[in-house]
Amino acid sequence: MIRSAFASLVLTALLLVLVVGVVLVPIAMRLPDPLAVLDMFVLGPFRNPRHTGNIVEMATPAMMCGLAVAIMFRAGMFNLGVEGAFFLGGLATVATVLVVPLPGWAMAPVGLLVGAVVGSSICAVPGYLKARYEASELVSSLMLNFAALFLGLFIVNYFLRDPAAGAMVSYKIPVDARLPRLVGGTRIHLGTIVAVAACLIGAVYLFMTRGGFESRIVGLNPGFAAHLGLPIRWITLRAQLIGGLIAAGAGGIEMLGIYQRFSWQSLPGNGWTGVVAAILARDNPILIIPAALFLSYLQVGGDLIARNFDVPSEAVGLIQALVLLVVTSSAIMRNPRLMRFIQGRSNAATKTGEPKAAERSPA
Amino acid sequence: MTELDLMGLVDFVPAVLRVTTPILLAALGVLISDRAGVLNIGVEGMMLSGAFAGVVASAATGSATAGLLAAIVAGGLLGAVLAAAVQILKSDLILSGIALNIAAAAGTTLLLFLMTGDKGMSGSLASKVLPNVAIPWIADVPVLGTLLSGHHVLTYAAFLAVPGVGIFLTRTPLGLRLRAVGESPESAAIAGINVVRVQVMALIVSGAFAGTGGAFLSMGYVSWFSQDMSAGRGFIALAAEVMGHGGASGTMFASLLLGAAEAIAVALQGRGLPSELMQTVPYVVPVVALVVYARRRQRLLARA
Questions:
Q1: Terminal Cα distance for chain A, rounded
Q2: Which sequence ranges are marked TM in the entry (chain B) (predicted)?
């Protein structure tokens, strides 16, 4: 079991390197100095503490969105409302700290709570419509993402807009509401600790509590769950609610941790990164932490080459899409010959004293 | 209703048809894929790629027809890619579709930048548009002329495709096989149908429809390509197909309903209602319609 998990880990890592190469090498070849581009992409994020910090900053929302996706997918629902919940959660949090008169110490907690509850509706409503009316959660969550976007732009434009600022952005978020920064020279903030803790708690919830166990049964085998007499509707709805609260909370944390004003003009894409992170981690909350860090590392590398060379950072989107594709490909991931080949090698590695890597990788 | 209102309503029809066209084309594509048991979530990305291919090819060749062909081919190719991911790589259908949407959004932006140096818009490309068609005789008849004549060539194509797809699905041997594969792949395989081939074909055709819808966006609706210009229309098409009961005419009526909702929202925007709020309408109406449809189905099931 552990050995096969290790083999799939090795395989995943090899595939990721391959995917990055396939996208990046042709783009780099266009430029006069392709090696400098690759070097900037691969090593650039670690040359400067500020950029290394960027990885952690970007991984923070990716972890929480990934966790939200994992909890909802584990319960058997293709709810894609994470993107909208993240957006609306961020907006509702900012609106609360701007509009509601609160003492300084209460701003962040109250704002985040309101943001999480309001934003979670984008995941909870499709969950409810599915549980109550059997309406496709896939379609309704995709629709509500866009509804959330335009509703949000309306609220910003008519209620929160700062006329002194040039663009359509909100008033400045009060300094008291902002989350404390943790590491000098970077923007790493308290939210990162919250996100890591959330992933750990998420793992405990999914694998060690009754609620998590129930939702996994419902997701794996609804017929069996019905046979057991589990309240399926409530269990799936509960998973969508928890997922929505986490995703929307992530939006609020991102706003209070990084931003000066609410300035999103379109859906920021963190929800989709969360989907990729969750799939990369096979819906395992602990593995979401490294998966999110890896995806953010790609993004920081992409942003660096975009800033220094004539390459748009969208290349990273292509890499994300390919990652999603190859990681879900059971022809590659469950290919018996490939697995045996890698396992044979990892056995040899184990004998020469590398057992810890295998034990560390959870199945 | 007074005569004035009636004339306003007649003038409103072209606007509805204009908004409905891309949704309907994409929804027919979704319908074909869905009936073959391979729901095409990548329709959004295929539309976007079709819009992009149309602009690039028509600018390169100077011919709008070449642009349309390129859009169809681009959509069909992506359908083949999705089919390959599902059938050869054995990836998950829905996640592959999501991957395709992410890739199309990034890929079109990347290519646009490589070609024009601009990430947002294709303004520097001299792309062509497909024409509107005036039907002789009918164009001169007062009300009928507004209703039937002068629409975009792809609007006619979309509505003519509705009976085409309907007849194909219900009255042809291939359509029967396609539906058999969608109902029960195992039984279809036992009956000697090549399930893989039917599903691959369905996804390619589905992509071609989505690509055509995309061509309408960049070569009819407007005359340029802009970043993420499909703006969720592929997803609205998914909703239209679900509301359409799995039939071609049902899909058409659902698309018209969603198109009318969007056209009304656009019209109200012009009368001073907040534009952002009106822009939510095309996305909220499908959700409400889905619920109404699902409730009705539940009641019918309960009665049966």
A1: 7
A2: 12-31, 38-60, 66-86, 93-115, 153-170, 200-224, 277-294
Which segments of chain B have a pLDDT < 50?
1
Q: In 3-state terms, what secondary structure has residue B134?
A: coil
Chain B: give the shortest CA distance to residue A336, in Å: 14
Cβ distance A157 to B276 less than 8 Å, yes or no, reads: yes
Partners of residue A145 in chain B, C-beta under 8 Å: 232
B295 touches chain A (CB under 8 A): yes
d(CA A313, CA A305): 7
Distances A117 to A112, A161, B145 between C-alpha atoms, Å: 9, 23, 52
Query: Which residue did the predictor score with more confidence, A80 or B266?
Result: A80
pLDDT of the residue at B161: 95
* A275 contact B CB<8A: yes
B78 contacts B49 by C-beta, under 8 angstroms: yes
CA B197, B199, B201 angle in degrees (round to 5)? 70
Give which of A228, A257, A244, A216 is closest to A94, Cα–Cα: A257
B:94-113 residues touching chain A, CB 8 A cutoff: 94-96, 98-100, 102-103, 105-107, 109-110, 113
* Measured CA distances, A95 to A137, A141, A153, A190, B283 (Å): 28, 23, 12, 20, 23
HSE (side-chain half, CA atoms, 13 Å) at B221: 23
Which two tokens mark A295?
């995806």
For residue B290, give the chain A residue with the closest CA.
Answer: A135
pLDDT for residue B117: 78
pLDDT for B121: 82
Residues of A in contact with B235 (CB under 8 A): 139, 142-143, 146
| Centroid of chain to Cα A284 | 12
The single residue listed with the structure tokens 């509707």 is A233
Question: For A135, which of B98, B284, B294 is closest by C-beta distance?
Answer: B294
pLDDT for A46 equals 92
> Which range among A174-178, A246-250, B79-83 shows the weakest confidence by mean pLDDT?
A174-178
**Rg, Å, chain A Cα set:** 21
Residues of A within 8 A of B110 (CB-CB) are: 27, 312, 314-315, 318
Is B72 within 8 Å of B94 (Cβ atoms)? no
Q: Per-residue pLDDT tens for A89-123?
A: 999 999 999 999 989 899 999 999 999 999 999 99
Of A146, A316, A326, the CB nearest to B232: A146
pLDDT digits (tens, 9 = 90+) for B162-192: 999 999 999 999 999 999 999 898 999 998 8
Q: Which residue of A has its CA nearest to B99?
A: A321
**Closest among B31, B35, B30, B28 to B178, alpha carbons compared:** B35
Nearest CB partner across the interface for B102, out of A145, A153, A320: A320
| Separation of alpha carbons A243 and A221, rounded Å | 20
Our measurement of the distance from residue A39's CA atom to the centroid of its chain's CA atoms, rounded to an integer in Å, reads 26
B113-116 contact pairs (CB < 8 A, 24+): B113/A312, B113/A314, B114/A30, B115/B56
> In this complex, which of A134, A138, A151 lies closest to B298 when CB atoms are compared?
A134
**pTM, full prediction:** 0.89
Task: Retrieve residue A284's tokens.
Answer: 């395992």
Distance of CA A113 to the CA centre of its chain: 19
**B90 — contact with chain A (CB < 8 Å)?**
yes
Contact (Cβ atoms closer than 8 angstroms) between residue A288 and residue A278: yes
Which residues have C-beta within 8 Å of that of residue A239, sequence separation ≥ 6?
A: A71, A72, A74, A75, A77, A127, A215, A219
Q: How far, in Å, CA of B33 to CA of B43, rounded?
A: 10
Q: What's the confidence (pLDDT) of residue A340?
A: 73
Residue of A nearest to B237 (CA): A139
Is the distance from CB of B94 to CB of B39 less than 8 angstroms? yes
